[in-house]
Protein backbone atom coordinates (compact mmCIF):
# COMPACT_ATOMS: atom_id res chain seq x y z
CA UNK A 1 0.00 0.00 0.00
CA UNK A 2 2.88 2.34 0.72
CA UNK A 3 4.11 2.18 -2.88
CA UNK A 4 0.95 3.92 -4.09
CA UNK A 5 1.82 7.10 -2.27
CA UNK A 6 5.31 7.17 -3.72
CA UNK A 7 3.96 7.58 -7.23
CA UNK A 8 0.76 9.55 -6.71
CA UNK A 9 1.66 12.04 -4.00
CA UNK A 10 3.23 15.11 -5.55
CA UNK A 11 3.35 17.98 -3.09
CA UNK A 12 4.13 21.09 -5.08
CA UNK A 13 3.01 23.65 -2.55
CA UNK A 14 6.13 23.26 -0.38
CA UNK A 15 4.03 23.18 2.79
CA UNK A 16 4.80 20.57 5.41
CA UNK A 17 2.06 18.17 6.37
CA UNK A 18 1.86 19.40 9.94
CA UNK A 19 -1.72 18.26 10.46
CA UNK A 20 -0.98 14.57 9.93
CA UNK A 21 -0.97 12.46 13.07
CA UNK A 22 2.19 10.36 13.15
CA UNK A 23 2.39 7.77 15.88
CA UNK A 24 4.89 5.30 14.45
CA UNK A 25 7.75 3.91 16.55
CA UNK A 26 10.86 1.86 15.94
CA UNK A 27 8.85 -1.35 16.22
CA UNK A 28 6.03 -0.32 13.88
CA UNK A 29 8.70 0.66 11.33
CA UNK A 30 10.42 -2.72 11.81
CA UNK A 31 7.09 -4.47 11.16
CA UNK A 32 6.51 -2.46 7.98
CA UNK A 33 10.02 -3.19 6.68
CA UNK A 34 9.82 -6.93 7.35
CA UNK A 35 6.39 -7.10 5.69
CA UNK A 36 7.79 -5.25 2.66
CA UNK A 37 10.92 -7.41 2.35
CA UNK A 38 9.69 -10.96 2.92
CA UNK A 39 7.98 -12.22 -0.21
CA UNK A 40 8.26 -14.62 -3.12
CA UNK A 41 11.97 -13.83 -3.50
CA UNK A 42 12.85 -15.87 -0.40
CA UNK A 43 11.89 -19.05 -2.26
CA UNK A 44 14.89 -18.68 -4.61
CA UNK A 45 17.57 -18.16 -1.94
CA UNK A 46 18.43 -21.84 -1.45
CA UNK A 47 18.97 -22.15 -5.22
CA UNK A 48 21.13 -19.00 -5.22
CA UNK A 49 23.23 -20.42 -2.38
CA UNK A 50 23.64 -23.65 -4.36
CA UNK A 51 25.17 -21.71 -7.24
CA UNK A 52 27.60 -19.86 -4.96
CA UNK A 53 28.51 -22.58 -2.45
CA UNK A 54 28.78 -22.71 1.32
CA UNK A 55 31.25 -19.84 1.65
CA UNK A 56 30.33 -17.37 -1.09
CA UNK A 57 26.55 -17.84 -0.65
CA UNK A 58 26.20 -16.64 2.96
CA UNK A 59 28.90 -13.98 2.50
CA UNK A 60 27.06 -12.56 -0.53
CA UNK A 61 23.83 -12.33 1.44
CA UNK A 62 25.63 -10.53 4.26
CA UNK A 63 27.14 -8.10 1.74
CA UNK A 64 23.69 -7.32 0.32
CA UNK A 65 22.44 -6.75 3.86
CA UNK A 66 25.26 -4.23 4.50
CA UNK A 67 24.45 -2.45 1.23
CA UNK A 68 20.78 -2.27 2.21
CA UNK A 69 21.64 -0.74 5.58
CA UNK A 70 24.00 1.85 4.12
CA UNK A 71 21.41 2.83 1.51
CA UNK A 72 18.69 3.00 4.17
CA UNK A 73 20.81 5.32 6.33
CA UNK A 74 21.62 7.60 3.41
CA UNK A 75 17.99 7.82 2.32
CA UNK A 76 16.60 8.30 5.82
CA UNK A 77 18.70 11.47 6.12
CA UNK A 78 16.95 12.78 2.99
CA UNK A 79 13.48 12.62 4.58
CA UNK A 80 13.71 16.24 5.64
CA UNK A 81 15.28 18.86 3.39
CA UNK A 82 18.22 20.75 4.92
CA UNK A 83 17.43 20.22 8.61
CA UNK A 84 16.73 16.77 10.19
CA UNK A 85 14.30 18.27 12.71
CA UNK A 86 12.59 21.28 11.12
CA UNK A 87 13.17 20.72 7.40
CA UNK A 88 10.33 20.12 4.93
CA UNK A 89 9.27 16.49 4.78
CA UNK A 90 9.72 14.38 1.63
CA UNK A 91 7.09 11.68 2.28
CA UNK A 92 7.81 9.50 -0.76
CA UNK A 93 10.75 8.26 -2.81
CA UNK A 94 9.63 10.10 -5.94
CA UNK A 95 9.05 13.31 -4.02
CA UNK A 96 12.58 13.15 -2.59
CA UNK A 97 14.05 12.57 -6.05
CA UNK A 98 12.10 15.57 -7.38
CA UNK A 99 13.28 17.85 -4.56
CA UNK A 100 16.96 16.88 -4.62
CA UNK A 101 17.65 15.87 -8.24
CA UNK A 102 14.99 17.65 -10.32
CA UNK A 103 12.09 16.81 -12.60
CA UNK A 104 14.02 14.87 -15.28
CA UNK A 105 15.38 12.40 -12.72
CA UNK A 106 11.89 12.08 -11.27
CA UNK A 107 10.61 10.87 -14.63
CA UNK A 108 13.45 8.35 -14.92
CA UNK A 109 12.87 7.14 -11.37
CA UNK A 110 9.14 6.76 -12.03
CA UNK A 111 9.82 4.87 -15.27
CA UNK A 112 12.14 2.42 -13.49
CA UNK A 113 9.59 1.84 -10.77
CA UNK A 114 6.77 1.23 -13.24
CA UNK A 115 8.94 -1.20 -15.23
CA UNK A 116 9.71 -3.00 -11.98
CA UNK A 117 6.01 -3.11 -11.03
CA UNK A 118 5.11 -4.57 -14.41
CA UNK A 119 7.94 -7.11 -14.27
CA UNK A 120 7.00 -8.11 -10.74
CA UNK A 121 3.48 -8.81 -11.99
CA UNK A 122 4.97 -11.19 -14.58
CA UNK A 123 7.07 -12.89 -11.90
CA UNK A 124 4.01 -13.29 -9.67
CA UNK A 125 2.07 -14.97 -12.48
CA UNK A 126 4.92 -17.47 -12.92
CA UNK A 127 5.30 -18.10 -9.19
CA UNK A 128 1.58 -18.54 -8.57
CA UNK A 129 1.20 -20.94 -11.48
CA UNK A 130 4.16 -22.97 -10.22
CA UNK A 131 2.56 -23.22 -6.78
CA UNK A 132 -0.82 -24.27 -8.19
CA UNK A 133 0.90 -26.92 -10.28
CA UNK A 134 2.78 -28.12 -7.19
CA UNK A 135 -0.47 -28.61 -5.28
CA UNK A 136 -1.72 -30.86 -8.08
CA UNK A 137 1.63 -32.69 -8.36
CA UNK A 138 2.03 -33.33 -4.62
CA UNK A 139 -1.53 -34.65 -4.32
CA UNK A 140 -0.95 -36.88 -7.35
CA UNK A 141 2.21 -38.38 -5.86
CA UNK A 142 0.49 -38.87 -2.51
CA UNK A 143 -2.38 -40.80 -4.10
CA UNK A 144 -0.53 -42.74 -6.82
CA UNK A 145 2.99 -43.11 -5.44
CA UNK A 146 6.32 -41.53 -6.32
CA UNK A 147 6.63 -43.47 -9.60
CA UNK A 148 3.41 -42.03 -11.03
CA UNK A 149 3.54 -39.59 -13.92
CA UNK A 150 2.35 -36.38 -12.30
CA UNK A 151 4.24 -33.66 -14.19
CA UNK A 152 2.07 -31.06 -15.91
CA UNK A 153 2.64 -27.69 -17.53
CA UNK A 154 1.90 -24.30 -16.01
CA UNK A 155 0.03 -22.56 -18.83
CA UNK A 156 -3.39 -23.63 -17.60
CA UNK A 157 -2.60 -22.38 -14.10
CA UNK A 158 -1.31 -19.08 -15.46
CA UNK A 159 -4.62 -18.60 -17.23
CA UNK A 160 -6.50 -19.36 -14.00
CA UNK A 161 -4.37 -16.83 -12.09
CA UNK A 162 -4.87 -14.28 -14.87
CA UNK A 163 -8.65 -14.65 -14.68
CA UNK A 164 -8.52 -14.15 -10.90
CA UNK A 165 -6.44 -11.00 -11.36
CA UNK A 166 -8.78 -9.62 -14.00
CA UNK A 167 -11.54 -9.77 -11.39
CA UNK A 168 -9.49 -8.40 -8.48
CA UNK A 169 -8.04 -5.65 -10.69
CA UNK A 170 -11.48 -4.05 -10.79
CA UNK A 171 -11.02 -3.05 -7.14
CA UNK A 172 -11.01 0.76 -7.52
CA UNK A 173 -7.91 1.64 -5.50
CA UNK A 174 -5.79 0.90 -2.45
CA UNK A 175 -8.32 2.39 -0.06
CA UNK A 176 -10.67 -0.46 -0.96
CA UNK A 177 -8.14 -3.30 -0.72
CA UNK A 178 -6.57 -2.93 2.72
CA UNK A 179 -7.97 -6.34 3.69
CA UNK A 180 -6.32 -7.94 0.66
CA UNK A 181 -2.93 -6.50 1.61
CA UNK A 182 -3.26 -7.76 5.19
CA UNK A 183 -4.09 -11.27 3.98
CA UNK A 184 -1.15 -11.16 1.54
CA UNK A 185 1.31 -10.18 4.28
CA UNK A 186 0.10 -12.95 6.61
CA UNK A 187 0.40 -15.53 3.85
CA UNK A 188 4.01 -14.52 3.09
CA UNK A 189 5.01 -15.22 6.69
CA UNK A 190 3.18 -18.56 6.66
CA UNK A 191 4.85 -20.07 3.59
CA UNK A 192 8.28 -18.66 4.50
CA UNK A 193 8.26 -20.29 7.94
CA UNK A 194 6.88 -23.53 6.50
CA UNK A 195 9.72 -23.59 3.98
CA UNK A 196 12.22 -23.05 6.78
CA UNK A 197 10.67 -25.82 8.87
CA UNK A 198 10.57 -28.29 5.98
CA UNK A 199 14.20 -27.61 5.13
CA UNK A 200 15.28 -28.13 8.74
CA UNK A 201 13.23 -31.34 8.96
CA UNK A 202 14.78 -32.73 5.77
CA UNK A 203 18.30 -32.06 7.06
CA UNK A 204 17.44 -34.04 10.21
CA UNK A 205 16.00 -36.89 8.11
CA UNK A 206 19.06 -36.97 5.85
CA UNK A 207 21.39 -37.09 8.88
CA UNK A 208 23.89 -35.19 6.81
CA UNK A 209 24.55 -31.72 5.44
CA UNK A 210 24.64 -31.64 1.67
CA UNK A 211 26.30 -29.10 -0.59
CA UNK A 212 29.87 -28.10 -1.31
CA UNK A 213 32.27 -25.21 -0.87
CA UNK A 214 32.10 -24.15 -4.54
CA UNK A 215 28.45 -24.93 -5.17
CA UNK A 216 26.95 -26.53 -8.26
CA UNK A 217 29.39 -28.16 -10.65
CA UNK A 218 28.97 -27.34 -14.35
CA UNK A 219 30.36 -28.66 -17.63
CA UNK A 220 32.18 -25.41 -18.38
CA UNK A 221 33.58 -22.41 -16.53
CA UNK A 222 31.41 -20.04 -18.55
CA UNK A 223 28.23 -21.84 -17.51
CA UNK A 224 29.30 -21.57 -13.85
CA UNK A 225 29.92 -17.83 -14.26
CA UNK A 226 26.46 -17.29 -15.76
CA UNK A 227 24.82 -19.15 -12.89
CA UNK A 228 26.77 -17.14 -10.31
CA UNK A 229 25.69 -13.89 -11.96
CA UNK A 230 22.09 -15.10 -12.01
CA UNK A 231 22.30 -15.95 -8.32
CA UNK A 232 23.35 -12.34 -7.62
CA UNK A 233 20.18 -11.13 -9.34
CA UNK A 234 18.04 -13.51 -7.29
CA UNK A 235 19.52 -12.31 -4.00
CA UNK A 236 19.08 -8.70 -5.10
CA UNK A 237 15.38 -9.34 -5.78
CA UNK A 238 14.88 -10.66 -2.24
CA UNK A 239 16.26 -7.61 -0.44
CA UNK A 240 15.42 -4.07 -1.60
CA UNK A 241 12.77 -2.16 0.33
CA UNK A 242 14.31 1.29 -0.14
CA UNK A 243 11.55 2.44 -2.51
CA UNK A 244 9.08 2.42 0.40
CA UNK A 245 11.47 3.54 3.14
CA UNK A 246 10.42 7.20 3.11
CA UNK A 247 6.75 6.24 3.18
CA UNK A 248 7.45 4.17 6.29
CA UNK A 249 9.52 6.98 7.80
CA UNK A 250 6.64 9.38 7.20
CA UNK A 251 4.58 7.42 9.77
CA UNK A 252 7.09 7.98 12.59
CA UNK A 253 6.46 10.34 15.46
CA UNK A 254 8.96 13.03 16.40
CA UNK A 255 10.95 13.66 18.61
CA UNK A 256 13.37 11.96 18.38
CA UNK A 257 14.18 12.96 14.78
CA UNK A 258 12.65 10.54 12.27
CA UNK A 259 15.99 9.70 10.64
CA UNK A 260 17.41 8.43 13.94
CA UNK A 261 14.38 6.23 14.55
CA UNK A 262 14.47 4.96 10.98
CA UNK A 263 18.13 3.99 11.18
CA UNK A 264 17.46 1.96 14.33
CA UNK A 265 14.45 0.31 12.69
CA UNK A 266 16.44 -0.47 9.55
CA UNK A 267 19.26 -2.05 11.53
CA UNK A 268 16.84 -4.20 13.54
CA UNK A 269 14.76 -5.25 10.53
CA UNK A 270 17.77 -6.05 8.34
CA UNK A 271 19.37 -8.16 11.09
CA UNK A 272 16.10 -10.10 11.54
CA UNK A 273 15.47 -10.64 7.82
CA UNK A 274 19.11 -11.52 7.10
CA UNK A 275 19.12 -14.11 9.90
CA UNK A 276 15.87 -15.52 8.53
CA UNK A 277 17.22 -15.52 4.94
CA UNK A 278 20.43 -17.25 5.98
CA UNK A 279 18.47 -19.92 7.87
CA UNK A 280 16.10 -20.49 4.96
CA UNK A 281 18.80 -20.59 2.28
CA UNK A 282 21.31 -22.63 4.28
CA UNK A 283 18.81 -25.22 5.52
CA UNK A 284 17.43 -25.45 1.99
CA UNK A 285 20.91 -25.97 0.55
CA UNK A 286 21.85 -28.39 3.34
CA UNK A 287 18.68 -30.39 2.61
CA UNK A 288 19.03 -30.65 -1.19
CA UNK A 289 22.66 -29.84 -1.84
CA UNK A 290 23.52 -28.97 -5.43
CA UNK A 291 20.06 -30.22 -6.46
CA UNK A 292 18.34 -27.37 -4.61
CA UNK A 293 15.23 -26.44 -6.63
CA UNK A 294 14.75 -22.95 -8.04
CA UNK A 295 11.61 -22.59 -5.91
CA UNK A 296 12.36 -24.20 -2.54
CA UNK A 297 8.82 -25.50 -1.94
CA UNK A 298 8.83 -27.50 -5.18
CA UNK A 299 11.36 -29.87 -3.60
CA UNK A 300 8.99 -31.27 -0.96
CA UNK A 301 6.26 -33.87 -1.36
CA UNK A 302 5.48 -34.76 2.26
CA UNK A 303 3.71 -34.05 4.47
CA UNK A 304 1.52 -33.35 1.49
CA UNK A 305 -1.09 -31.35 3.42
CA UNK A 306 1.54 -28.94 4.78
CA UNK A 307 3.17 -28.53 1.37
CA UNK A 308 -0.28 -27.91 -0.14
CA UNK A 309 -1.03 -25.32 2.53
CA UNK A 310 2.30 -23.53 1.93
CA UNK A 311 1.69 -23.39 -1.82
CA UNK A 312 -1.87 -22.18 -1.25
CA UNK A 313 -0.44 -19.41 0.96
CA UNK A 314 1.86 -18.40 -1.90
CA UNK A 315 -1.06 -18.15 -4.30
CA UNK A 316 -3.14 -16.10 -1.86
CA UNK A 317 -0.16 -13.84 -1.11
CA UNK A 318 0.54 -13.20 -4.76
CA UNK A 319 -3.09 -12.52 -5.63
CA UNK A 320 -2.84 -9.55 -3.28
CA UNK A 321 0.81 -8.87 -4.10
CA UNK A 322 0.00 -8.56 -7.80
CA UNK A 323 -2.47 -5.81 -6.95
CA UNK A 324 -0.02 -4.01 -4.65
CA UNK A 325 2.38 -3.65 -7.58
CA UNK A 326 -0.27 -3.10 -10.26
CA UNK A 327 -2.50 -0.52 -8.61
CA UNK A 328 0.10 2.29 -8.89
CA UNK A 329 0.30 1.65 -12.64
CA UNK A 330 -3.50 1.62 -12.91
CA UNK A 331 -3.75 4.89 -10.97
CA UNK A 332 -1.09 6.61 -13.08
CA UNK A 333 -2.56 5.62 -16.45
CA UNK A 334 -6.15 6.35 -15.44
CA UNK A 335 -5.20 9.75 -13.99
CA UNK A 336 -3.33 10.60 -17.19
CA UNK A 337 -6.26 9.50 -19.38
CA UNK A 338 -8.74 11.53 -17.34
CA UNK A 339 -6.61 14.66 -17.63
CA UNK A 340 -5.94 14.08 -21.34
CA UNK A 341 -9.54 13.32 -22.32
CA UNK A 342 -11.77 14.98 -19.70
CA UNK A 343 -14.82 15.07 -22.00
CA UNK A 344 -14.57 11.49 -23.26
CA UNK A 345 -17.42 9.48 -21.74
CA UNK A 346 -15.58 6.19 -22.35
CA UNK A 347 -12.78 7.43 -20.09
CA UNK A 348 -14.65 9.42 -17.43
CA UNK A 349 -18.19 8.03 -17.22
CA UNK A 350 -19.03 5.67 -14.35
CA UNK A 351 -22.08 3.41 -14.25
CA UNK A 352 -23.50 2.14 -10.96
CA UNK A 353 -24.33 -1.57 -11.01
CA UNK A 354 -26.27 -2.89 -8.01
CA UNK A 355 -25.43 -6.42 -6.98
CA UNK A 356 -27.31 -8.54 -4.43
CA UNK A 357 -25.93 -8.14 -0.88
CA UNK A 358 -22.79 -6.38 -2.15
CA UNK A 359 -22.50 -2.57 -2.40
CA UNK A 360 -23.05 -0.92 -5.77
CA UNK A 361 -20.23 -1.46 -8.28
CA UNK A 362 -18.94 1.63 -10.10
CA UNK A 363 -18.17 0.44 -13.63
CA UNK A 364 -15.91 2.45 -15.91
CA UNK A 365 -15.30 1.04 -19.40
CA UNK A 366 -11.81 2.51 -19.78
CA UNK A 367 -10.75 1.08 -16.42
CA UNK A 368 -12.30 -2.28 -17.27
CA UNK A 369 -10.57 -2.48 -20.67
CA UNK A 370 -7.15 -1.15 -19.60
CA UNK A 371 -6.84 -3.25 -16.48
CA UNK A 372 -8.02 -6.37 -18.31
CA UNK A 373 -5.50 -5.84 -21.12
CA UNK A 374 -2.76 -5.16 -18.56
CA UNK A 375 -3.39 -8.48 -16.81
CA UNK A 376 -3.60 -10.30 -20.15
CA UNK A 377 -0.24 -8.84 -21.22
CA UNK A 378 1.57 -9.91 -18.03
CA UNK A 379 0.02 -13.37 -18.27
CA UNK A 380 1.01 -13.74 -21.93
CA UNK A 381 4.62 -12.75 -21.26
CA UNK A 382 4.75 -15.12 -18.29
CA UNK A 383 3.52 -17.95 -20.52
CA UNK A 384 6.20 -17.10 -23.07
CA UNK A 385 9.00 -16.95 -20.46
CA UNK A 386 7.99 -19.21 -17.53
CA UNK A 387 11.44 -19.20 -15.93
CA UNK A 388 11.23 -18.43 -12.21
CA UNK A 389 14.86 -17.82 -11.23
CA UNK A 390 15.83 -16.08 -14.45
CA UNK A 391 12.92 -13.62 -14.30
CA UNK A 392 13.56 -12.87 -10.63
CA UNK A 393 17.23 -12.30 -11.47
CA UNK A 394 16.41 -9.80 -14.22
CA UNK A 395 14.03 -7.86 -11.96
CA UNK A 396 16.40 -7.88 -8.99
CA UNK A 397 19.36 -6.67 -11.05
CA UNK A 398 17.30 -4.09 -12.93
CA UNK A 399 15.98 -2.35 -9.82
CA UNK A 400 18.85 -2.95 -7.37
CA UNK A 401 21.39 -0.31 -8.37
CA UNK A 402 19.20 2.59 -9.54
CA UNK A 403 16.66 2.72 -6.71
CA UNK A 404 18.57 1.07 -3.87
CA UNK A 405 21.97 2.70 -4.37
CA UNK A 406 22.26 5.39 -7.04
CA UNK A 407 19.35 7.67 -6.13
CA UNK A 408 19.97 7.51 -2.34
CA UNK A 409 23.68 8.24 -2.84
CA UNK A 410 23.09 11.17 -5.18
CA UNK A 411 20.35 12.65 -2.98
CA UNK A 412 22.56 12.33 0.10
CA UNK A 413 25.42 14.13 -1.69
CA UNK A 414 23.07 17.02 -2.53
CA UNK A 415 21.52 17.01 0.96
CA UNK A 416 24.87 17.21 2.75
CA UNK A 417 26.46 19.47 0.09
CA UNK A 418 29.41 17.12 -0.30
CA UNK A 419 32.06 18.57 -2.61
CA UNK A 420 33.03 16.63 -5.74
CA UNK A 421 36.30 14.67 -5.47
CA UNK A 422 36.40 14.98 -1.70
CA UNK A 423 37.19 11.83 0.28
CA UNK A 424 33.55 11.28 1.26
CA UNK A 425 32.38 11.90 -2.32
CA UNK A 426 34.86 9.34 -3.66
CA UNK A 427 33.76 6.75 -1.09
CA UNK A 428 30.08 7.23 -1.92
CA UNK A 429 30.60 7.19 -5.68
CA UNK A 430 32.92 4.17 -5.39
CA UNK A 431 30.26 2.36 -3.35
CA UNK A 432 27.73 3.20 -6.07
CA UNK A 433 30.01 1.97 -8.88
CA UNK A 434 30.68 -1.37 -7.17
CA UNK A 435 26.92 -1.92 -6.80
CA UNK A 436 26.42 -0.94 -10.44
CA UNK A 437 28.88 -3.65 -11.51
CA UNK A 438 27.04 -6.23 -9.38
CA UNK A 439 23.72 -5.14 -10.87
CA UNK A 440 25.04 -5.34 -14.44
CA UNK A 441 26.52 -8.80 -13.86
CA UNK A 442 23.25 -10.05 -12.36
CA UNK A 443 21.28 -8.63 -15.27
CA UNK A 444 23.56 -10.15 -17.92
CA UNK A 445 23.59 -13.55 -16.22
CA UNK A 446 19.79 -13.62 -15.89
CA UNK A 447 19.23 -12.57 -19.50
CA UNK A 448 21.61 -15.31 -20.60
CA UNK A 449 19.62 -17.74 -18.45
CA UNK A 450 16.34 -16.71 -20.11
CA UNK A 451 17.85 -17.04 -23.60
CA UNK A 452 19.38 -20.45 -22.80
CA UNK A 453 16.15 -21.74 -21.28
CA UNK A 454 14.14 -20.50 -24.24
CA UNK A 455 16.47 -22.08 -26.79
CA UNK A 456 16.53 -25.33 -24.83
User: Structural class, from helix and strand content?
Assistant: mainly alpha
Runs with pLDDT <50, length 5+? 1-16
**Count of β-strands:** 2
Q: Kindly state the percentage of residues in helix.
A: over 70%
Tally of separate helices: 15
CATH topology: Amino acid/polyamine transporter I
CATH class: Mainly Alpha
Order of helix and strand elements from N to C terminus:
HHHHHHHHHHHHEEHHH
**Oligomeric grouping of the chains:** single chain
Give the second-level CATH assignment, the architecture. Up-down Bundle
Strand content: under 5%
CATH superfamily: Amino acid/polyamine transporter I
For the CA atoms, what is the radius of gyration? 23 Å
Spatial order of strands in the largest sheet: 1-2
Number of separate domains: 1
Mind summarizing the main beta sheet?
A: 2 strands, antiparallel
Protein model, in words:
This protein is mostly helical and 456 residues long. It has one domain (2-13, 21-455): Amino acid/polyamine transporter I (Up-down Bundle). 71% of the residues lie in helices and 1% in strands. It contains 15 helices and two strands. The protein has helices at residues 2-8, 26-37, 45-76, 93-101, 103-144, 155-168, 178-206, 221-238, 245-249, 258-288, 304-340, 345-348, 365-384, 388-416, 423-455, and strands at 351-353, 361-363. Helix 5 (103-144) packs across helix 6 (155-168), helix 6 runs antiparallel to helix 13 (365-384) and helix 14 (388-416) runs antiparallel to helix 15 (423-455). Residues 22-450 form the Amino acid transporter transmembrane domain. The chain crosses the membrane at residues 26-47, 54-72, 105-127, 153-171, 177-204, 225-246, 266-288, 368-388, 394-414, 426-447. This is Amino acid permease 7. It is found in: Membrane.
